[in-house]
Amino acid sequence: MTETQEKFPARLHVIFASQSSNAIVFRRGPSKRVATFSWDRKTDKFKIGQWLKGRIYERRSDISSDGRHLIYFAMNGKWNSETKGSWTAISKPPYLKALDLYAKGDCWEGGGLFLSSNKYWLNEGRYNKNSLLSKNSNLTGQTRNGPKNNFGSECTGVYYPRLLRDGWSLMERKQTGKKYHSFTVFEKKLPNHWVLRKIAHEQCNSPVGKGCYWDEHELFNTKSNLSFNYPDWEWADFDNKSLVWATAGKLFRAGFLGQDGLKEAKLLHDFNDYVFEPIRAPY
User: Is residue 189 assigned to a domain?
Assistant: First the structure.
C-alpha cells in the first residue's frame, strides 16, 4: 500500500553501531510520521521497530557502539502532556519505547550522543534543562563532558560531533552568500584512493522536499582524478568494503571497480510503501 498523501519519497537517515553490525534506519514520511528499522549489515536484513506520530530529529540521535541502545529526540507538539511536547529517550533499537525518558518542552538542544556502550551525554543548554520522568536502563546519563567542538544548539550540535567520532574529517565551513544558508564539508577516506565527501547544508528556505538540515555527496579519486556528484544521496557511508547510500526512499550498496568507479548498485531495501501501524515493543 502506498500513502497517496505523500508528495515525496520516504526520507531516510542511518546511524551505524561502531562495534557491531547493527544500524538504525529512520524512515520519515509523511512529515509527521516516522518509523524506525533495524539493519543487520552482515546479512542486509531489515526489521521494522515502531512508528511515531510526530517528528524524530535523527541528527540529534545516536546508537550505542554495541548497537543495544538508541538515544533520540522527538516532538509531537502536545505541550500540556507529561513530556511537555518534546522529549529525549533511551530505548532498545529498533523500538522507541522509552527506558529512560526526559521531558524537554521545546526544540532547543535535545537528544545526545553515546560516550561508550553504557554511558550517554544529554544535549542540553544552560536554561533548557531536561526533566527526568523515568529511569529504567542500566546506563549512565550525564550533561557534562560532551563534544569538544561546539557546532550550535540544534541538529549540528549533535550531528557534526557524531560524524567526527565516526571517522569523518571536517574540511571546511562556508557561507554561500545567500541569507541563512551555510554548509560544512566532511570527508572520509576509502580504499583505492577514493574519498567520500559529505556536504552538510544548514539552510532556511531549503529546496522543496528537504528540511533545514540536508546533505548531498560527492565521490572522487585522488589518483585517477575521477569525480562523481550525487546531489540526490541524502545519506551515504562506507561499510564492509562497499559504499552504501540512501536516495528516493531506498537503500543501495555497491563495491568499487578499482580507481574507475562503482560496481553495479544493489537495492537493499525499498522503504516507500510502508504505512503507519501501531506496534508494541517486546519489552
Answer: yes
pLDDT tens digits along 35-78: 999 999 999 999 999 999 999 999 999 999 999 999 999 999 99
DSSP designation for 143: S
| Full domain range(s) for residue 20 | 11-270
**Residue 182: exposed, middle, or buried by beta-carbon count in 10 A (0-12, 13-18, 19+)?**
middle
Domain assignment present for residue 113? The answer is yes
* Residue 2 counted as domain residue: no
Give pTM, 2 decimals: 0.93
User: What 3-state DSSP class applies to 242?
Assistant: strand
| Residue type (1 letter), 83 | T
Half-sphere exposure of 20 (CA within 13 A, CB side): 16
DSSP for 122-133, please give it.
E---SSS--EEE
Cell 550525487 -> residue: 230
What is the number of residues in the chain? 283
